[in-house]
Amino acid sequence: MDDHSFARFAADATGIRLLQVRSRITGASPALLGMAGDRAAQVLLARLLREHRPGDAVLSEEAPDDPARLHADRVWIIDPLDGTREFGEPPRDDWAVHVALWEKNRLTAGAIALPARALVLSTGEHPPAPPTRAGPVKMLVSRTRPPPFAEQLADILGARVVRQGSAGAKTADVLLGAAGLYLQAGGQHEWDSAAPAAVAQARGFHTSRLDGSPLTYNHPDPLLPDLLICRTELASRVLTACALINYQCL
Q: Which residues take part in binding Mg(2+) (predicted)?
């Protein structure tokens, strides 16, 4: 299967495993359930990569970093369970599986699985952007680490701030038309945004840092603290507003 199909297959299979973990482990604390999900997802996704893409390097949130990836032509950047906290709080559905391929200095394939929503979005699909919704723009931010300037930015944009878990879940809501933009400042790494950015780019949405510079991957330090994913017609307004309020990435 090609890389787009593999990313979708791997993300979907890992999501199914996570649903099994969630249904099997009952009565556990959110922390213990989240740990079980992280572990099971990493084991399966790592095995699928070894079986189907044995020559490629991997950067994962849940595995030790191998510096050999810095010299590799193809690197899979994965977050086996994005939104561990939300996974540990059934019946929340704002958690995801991220699978992305970085190749020759750019993202070339990826998928976001949202198992609790029975949904997978991948770079192999290119549906048109949904129509703009009437009313104030919904601006999605982190449930636990919202940008300190979120409300100020929302006032400038005439937007409504909504806190939500998982970068993948927030990105999916933007791509499907449930929100206008997703903005993050602080606390993220490459595995948090690689798959969301890959899928958003494939669908023609805007992706960038908050200063407008491109998102880049496979660096020695995988910290990538801020990003913007939004409808293209909103990008200039949002970036200008960010510059006006002199945002800080904490």
A: 61, 79, 81-82, 192
Distance CA 103, CA 95 (A): 26
61 in a known ligand binding site: yes
Per-residue pLDDT of 215-248, as tens digits, reads 999 999 999 999 999 999 999 999 999 998 865 4
Yes or no: say if 188 and 29 are a contact pair by the CB < 8 Å rule: no
CATH 3.20.20.190 for domain 3-122, yes or no, is no
Cβ-proximal residues to 185 (8 Å cutoff; 6+ apart), any chain = 147, 148, 149, 210, 225, 226, 247, 248, 249, 250
Judge whether 233 is annotated as a binding position. no
Q: What is the CATH number of domain 137-244?
A: 3.40.190.80
pTM for the model stands at 0.93
Residue 181 marked as a ligand binder: no
Helix-, strand-, coil-residue percentages of the chain, each rounded to 5: 40, 25, 35
CB 165 within 8 A of CB 95: yes
Confidence bin at 127 (pLDDT 50/70/90): confident
173-193, pLDDT tens digit by residue?
999 999 999 999 988 999 999
Q: Give the pair of three-digit tokens for residue 72.
A: 């590799």
The reply to whether 79 sits in an annotated binding site is: yes
With contact defined as beta carbons under 8 Å apart, do 34 and 85 qualify?
yes
In angstroms, the CA 194 to CA 116 distance is 21
What does the alpha-carbon distance between residue 147 and residue 7 come to, in Å, rounded to a whole number? Answer: 30
